[in-house]
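Morning. Coffee machine broken again, so started the prediction first thing and wrote up yesterday's gels while waiting. Chain of 210 residues, entered below exactly as on the submission form.
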Amino acid sequence: MKIQKYELLPEQELLARLKKTHLRGFDRAEVYRDATLSIESVDTNDLTPAQRYVLADGIETILDIADSFAPLGIDVFALRGALLWWPEGADLNEAPIPFLPPVIEESTEADGRKVLLINDGIHRVYAARKRGRNLNVVVARNVPAEYPYYAYALPDGWKQVEELAELSEGYQKKEYRNPENYKALFRDFNEIFEGIQKQRPKTNPDHLKA
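Came back before lunch.
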């Protein structure tokens, strides 16, 4: 993969944008408005997934991005802001591809335990695990209790995550808190970073998720 152009968005601007993240429902409440956001370096074993799968192509692409930026002096696993970039051949008048530190939420689960739950970026986290790397993430604490992440943490954590070539029809991706209306609690990052939740094979597969 070749990089045509890139920009680095500073940490404070990244966090300021994330503060404005809306929910899909609940009158589009700003879920992080009163939360505490910070960028922290973590051991991936300390993060808990909610999603039961990752896609092999997605992991391969994240590692390809990492290897493409390394000669430019950029470690994508140690970002303290957002990386906005255009691959070779992309129209520079179009929106760049956003690559952010994964978004993690301190979540209270049904059994009362608190976990650092992977909200956005499980492919990035999994790729870091494959490289044996610690990872910079955005941690959201003090998220309003009425707006929990829309799925529960996996009880057995990483042991329940499968690496798949593709998803089969009817695959149970997550255990939703409200299966009938889980999308109301969906965090709409696409409003603040265009294309971040768009399926983008071979460039940004990290957001192939419900």
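The longest helix spans residues 56-69. Going to sketch it on the whiteboard this afternoon.
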